[in-house]
Amino acid sequence: MNLLLIDDHPMFGVGFVHALTHLRPGIDARAVLHLEQGLELARSWSGLDVVLIDYRLAGDDGLAGLRRFGMHHPLVARVLISGQEDPHLQAQARTAGAAGFLGKSLPIADILAALERIVGGGEHFPSSTPAVFADRGVPAAAPGPTARQLEVLLLIARGQQNKQIAHELGIAERTVKLHVTALLDALGARNRTHLLVLARDSGLV
């Protein structure tokens, strides 16, 4: 699978690409910060299978980005990815030509399963197909850190504390604490130090 992520937050892009390629080493995944960069890269990437476009791009609208990408590269499957996960946005994404919608709260393994279905010619819209994996005969993925949690994990690995992470990601400090707690549970870690040890052993950082 050849995959392009267009997301204006560099840490999310780094974490997302790293997590996907760790989970499935054969994937060629790349991330850029702006829609124009993505369009330019796609022109020289003849084997590109799928593009993920963030809903909230600085200076661009993700839905408009789906349409523009479709005009220039109609054979590439398009997916909207967002931290805002509501049925209305998913319907808008479908209307804009997306083959799927991915929430940033999904575990990476579930994101990979959805992407594989999309690249195979299917769709993934959780609001209209809540049991998509079970209904299509795709086994449920193992639980694990979500895309957003991996972003937090990379910042922890850089030595940042919760307040700094909150500022970096533009979220509340209490939200960061929730992500850290979820990471501790997901990896079975006792504390932040143990979390980093386990994350490095697992190849997540």
Q: Could you name the key traits of this structure?
A:
205 residues, single chain, Rossmann fold, globular, 10 helices, 51% helix, 2 domains, five-stranded parallel beta sheet, two-stranded antiparallel ribbon, alpha/beta, Arc Repressor Mutant, subunit A
Quick recap of the structure?
This protein has 205 residues and is an alpha/beta fold.
How would you sum up this structure, described in words?
There is one protein chain. The protein has about 200 residues and is α/β, with parallel strands linked by helices. It folds into two domains: about 1-135, Rossmann fold; about 145-200, Arc Repressor Mutant, subunit A (Orthogonal Bundle), CATH 1.10.10. The chain is built from ten helices and seven strands. Strands 2-1-3-6-7 form a five-stranded parallel β-sheet, with helices on both faces. Helix 4 links the parallel strand 6 (about 75-80) and strand 7 (about 100-105). Residues about 130-140 have low confidence and may be disordered.
* Name of the CATH superfamily of the largest domain: Response regulator
- So, CATH architecture of the largest domain? 3-Layer(aba) Sandwich
- Outline type: globular
Tally of strands: 7
The helix-strand sequence is EHEHEEEHEHEHHHHHH
Q: State the secondary-structure class.
A: alpha/beta
Mean pLDDT: 83
